[in-house]
Amino acid sequence: MHRIYEPRDLLEAEVLLAMLDSEGIEAHLAGRHLMGAIGELPAIGLLGIAVRDEDALRARELIADYNTAQPLPYEDPDSGPAVLLC
C-alpha cells in the first residue's frame, strides 16, 4: 500500500474513500482512530489515504480532479417552486 494523500479532516477522508471505492479502488484510511487524541497529538498529518501501488496513479488523478472541481452552475432560486420538494 502506498500513502497518496492527507485529507484535511475526517469528513473529506470519508468522501474521498467513497469516491475511490465507486471507481473500484480499494483504499485504507490510516489514523482514523487517532482523531480522538487531538489536543495531545499534532492535528496535522494524522490522516492518510493509502491504496495499492498499482492504483496509486489513478487514485491521485481522481483526488486531483476532486480538488479542482467547480460547483455546477445553479438556476435562479426564485425560478423554482415555492415549496421545498423532498
From TrEMBL:
Domain of life, per lineage: Bacteria
Organismal lineage: Bacteria, Pseudomonadati, Pseudomonadota, Gammaproteobacteria, Pseudomonadales
Pfam families: DUF2007 (PF09413)
InterPro entries recorded: DUF2007 (IPR018551), N-reg_PII-like_a/b (IPR011322)
Organism: Pseudomonas asuensis
Residue ranges of every copy of the DUF2007 domain listed in the record: 1-66
Protein name: DUF2007 domain-containing protein
